[in-house]
Amino acid sequence: MAEMVPPNHPLEGPGLWVERVGMRRFPAGRPALFLDRDGTVNVDTGYPSDPAAVVLREEVLPAVRAANRAGLPVVVVTNQSGIARGLFGWDEFAAVNARVLALLAARDCFVDMVLACAYHEAGKGALGISDHPMRKPNPGMILRAAEMLGTDLARSIMAGDSASDLEAGRRAGLSHLFLVGEAGTGQGARIIEVVEAVA
Ligand SMILES: [Mg+2]
Questions:
Q1: d(CA 125, ligand 1 centre) in Å
Q2: Full-prediction pTM beyond 0.90?
């Protein structure tokens, strides 16, 4: 009989992915650059689940490099209700996440943590939770990352393509909130200025 090998995913409970990426270490009290993923780092194709289809967006890449240079941790915080909705699973999330990180690294952009929340009211079973504290616009993922990294939230930055990204940042106590993507074009240079100002 084939042995069941449990998937080696960095999950805290059934619906929260908390991944420390790479070996960069940060002293406590640094601000961080928080980024939404779909529609911010990569083109949002609607519940992306195919690693071969991942395409980076250009807008925030220079800001990621600036944060890397300035010694700010870069943290991706992404709602993944597609998992609660049964459209794909953590294996597909892992594959897309790995592809995003690899494409970023090929552009000299390095991410230090990835957090993903699968909880959503449309889900079934353990994932079917309404207004979960980890799901944006709630600040849980930002607070969890800050706890692990010793982040100074008041000086930290959030960039995302939806109002719920900015609201999560506001609820976490961040002062610098940037709407990017279609609705907020041309923020890249301004984010770099703030990264360098808070560093
Ligand atoms: Mg988004």
A1: 25
A2: yes
